[in-house]
Amino acid sequence: MTSATRDLAGLSARIAQAAPGLRVETGAGDTVPYAYDASNYRVPPRAVAFPRTADDVCAVLRACREEGIPVTARGGGTSMAGNAVGPGVVLDFSRYMNRILAIDPEAGTARVEAGVVLDALRDAAGEHGLTFGPDPSSHSRCTLGGMIGNDACGNRSVRHGRTSGHIESLDIVTADGVRAVADHAGLRAADPDDTDAVRRVARLEADLRRLVADNLAPIRTELGRVPRQVSGYQLHHLLPENGFDAARALVGTEGTCAVVTGATVRLVATAPASALLALGYDDVVDAAEDVPEILRREPTAVEGMDEAIVATMRARRGPDAVTGLPEGRAWLYVELDGEDSATVTTRAAELLDVLKARGRMTGGRVVDSAAERRSLWRVREDGAGLAARLVDGRESWPGWEDAAVAPENLAGYLRDFRELLARHGLTGVLYGHFGAGCVHVRIDFDLVTEAGRAATRRFLGEAAALVVEHGGTLSGEHGDGRARGELLEIMYSHRMVEAFAAFKRIFDPEGMLNPGVIVAPAPLDTDLALRELPLLTTEFTFPHDEDGFTGAARRCVGVGRCRGDAGGVMCPSYRATGEENASTRGRARLLQEMVRGESIQDGWRSTEVRDALDLCLSCKACSTDCPVGVDMATYKAEFLHQHYRGRLRPRSHYSLGWLPLTSALAGFAARPLNALLRGPLGRVLARLGGVTTRRTIPAFASRRALRSQLRGTRTAEPARALLFVDSFTRAFRPQVAGATARVLADAGIPSTARDGLCCGLTWVSTGQLSVARRVMARTVAHLDDGDDRPIVVAEPSCAAALRRDVPELLGTEAARRVAARVHTLTGALTDLAAPDWTPPPLPADVVLQTHCHEYATFTDRRPRDLLRRLGVRTVDEAEGCCGLAGNFGFEEQHYDTSMAVADLALTPRLDGLDHHTPGVVVADGFSCATQIDHLAGDRDLRALHLAELLDPATDRPGETS
Predict the structure, then answer these.
(1) For a designed S-S bond to 633, which of 618, 665, 741, 745 qualifies (C-beta 3.0 to 4.6 A apart)?
(2) Residue 407 in contact with residue 437, Cβ under 8 Å?
(3) Cα–Cα distance between 157 and 163 in angstroms, integer?
(4) Closest by alpha carbon to 717, among 654, 777, 809, 789?
(5) In this structure, what are the phi and psi dihedrals at residue 856, rounded to the nearest 5 degrees?
(6) What pLDDT digit, counting tens, does each position of 574-616 carry?
């Protein structure tokens, strides 16, 4: 047993004794994801604890103090400065300490635990016409504790400033395990009857007052100079003229002085009306020149962004993903608000006129459409991820992503900063809170080689000197962390830096809280995550990643959009479980460690990686929802192939992975086989195949059924398209093939059916890639025969496999030619239908479940948009995965997770249907329709394929007159 193992065993024993039931994880599969945040750093922790109460936190801190083990508090883990990683015990507050304890609408306050996600607070406060002012772009997953740690701001900081301005009091635990309260008047023990705590907290406050009294001059002259001055500690809040505000002084201390367990925060009223202006410029400097004029109009937000981010968003999510921008190569978003729409609109028009007269703007408009406003804010909020991996393949990194100057100095600073980048041969992608003078930039640093790291160090030193020369601050909201702590001596006097150190010593004399951050900082190039890594031989070609699987896994930079619980589809397993290693980010970090070969040393044979991937539904939503385009479904398929190479596989890989072949054989004896599977023997066979017995196995169709359905669908006109009859449609719902053929003909796209081919999807999802390659190669050979007609696929998952998996696995020109011809039915009707086509009468209201693979792969051809265009009044889309996800929900061990995922979006939509009037539910995916049938139970409810809804030969329920 090593000394580290002994220390860990001792710590675990102490914690278990002090806090029975507290969850503490020490295995690599659980701790590796916590070695990273959204920064450049990698610091593996010894353990991760998941407190449920402040007493749990006290127990951990006391035990760690006795064992000499440091502690790092963590919220959403989205820090870009490295202040959410540490070498000892990481406290994850987001898992359990995430309750909103109270909202007082009259007082305009809320009491929250540290792990509350900002959006959860905003949603709860919104019921009272209130919100929390600071709104970082990570609002869907950042926690209040993390915002307090960094003194976060956000897009509307022009109006609402920093988090510190919205804190009434903080519930804290000191390094020695004492619970206290910090408020506007100082510090006090949380329990006034605990005499020992009262004495210790009183001594702490007295020491703080002496520190301030001894350093009045530097505190008054060096701190609080610009609105976004977050670097260092905010000791000016402790000045006599500021009332010794201990709460605000502790905001922004990055967990280095005390652990925040809860807070009372001040809420602000939501304005009744607002307007968004999109302004175009030739470059970001021109945009910055207009900021002082814009600020005179009292906007709520002035956000800047350059063209590289927009181009990447459009490439990843389709050309319609960013709409409403005027001509330009850089843009400002300006938001105005007020009491009524007419006044706000008038102010917006006046501002446009003023800016046009100034002559820098290339174009500008008021964005009236709510959909356009959402798309524009989405691209701004995803800026950090989009800038990390650009459309041209370039990678960029944080490290100098948070400098700020006074807004009136922004244009001059940006001009000089771009010259500095050019002198160092670097490129930066610029965006940020221009109205507050805060510039976010990701730079193409070489953080791998020694020469590149040395060059980065030189650049950062010069960048720090430059921002100080412009009267600014190293950090405007992300904190100093590991990235900038070393540079504080450039910004502050030696006396001020010593005062910071004394402040920390008062709270944390033994230096156990988040060591290496702000005070006694580690060198900024210590613990960098990037290094030379081996290139792995794989089956998939990973065409978008220069160094193959290694580069693909490296796509994840930790921004954590996959940890949000609303918006988009990613990540269903995280939303259902709340576990970091069940998120796209957690899995990507484990894969990075697997390639690295340190914490995880057995490569493709890793059980930690296997277990983390086990709950991945292979929905592919991350490939489009993730700002950096992580495609965990593909990574999982590759891993499973390598992991089980030459080994016995899980039973379901055989029973479900080979379904295209077995279902084809089943078609010869469908009736007796269905009867057998419905009986006791069917349950035995299901168990033998690793299939849950809690689902009904879908009935196989006979071979005659498909022929019967397609009979009579040919028209006298020449076929304009190929109807690819996939394995699922042929085996389980041949009526969809017939309906699709009739709809295509009705829409002026007569087709000819191609049967007997397979996309290989089931072998991909179970990681049997050698078989998948053979199946795909056969299919491509038959389809790439000189025929260039569109290929229409009724089953969205098969269409997605042909469009994406086939070319990425085969890597041939023939595969790419076939992929380029593939359409879903939605895509065919959108792009190929006759201009005068009029569909049959449709119902006014539809519940829609879009297949995840269609959502991810055919991003700009959505069934929702088509249905609305065809006249459906209300499309209630279940935004999220259905939970069945192909083989996943049929596997015995995944049934409960499958149902939990369904409960997130699909089940509530179905439950909302009128039980007395049959509702219309549309689900093109076979797995989605199967899940809906399962959820419906005995109800008279069946999911229709879009083709069945539009079939001119079928009566439709609920059609409009």
Answers:
(1) 618
(2) yes
(3) 9
(4) 789
(5) -80, -35
(6) 999 999 999 999 999 999 999 999 999 999 999 999 999 999 9
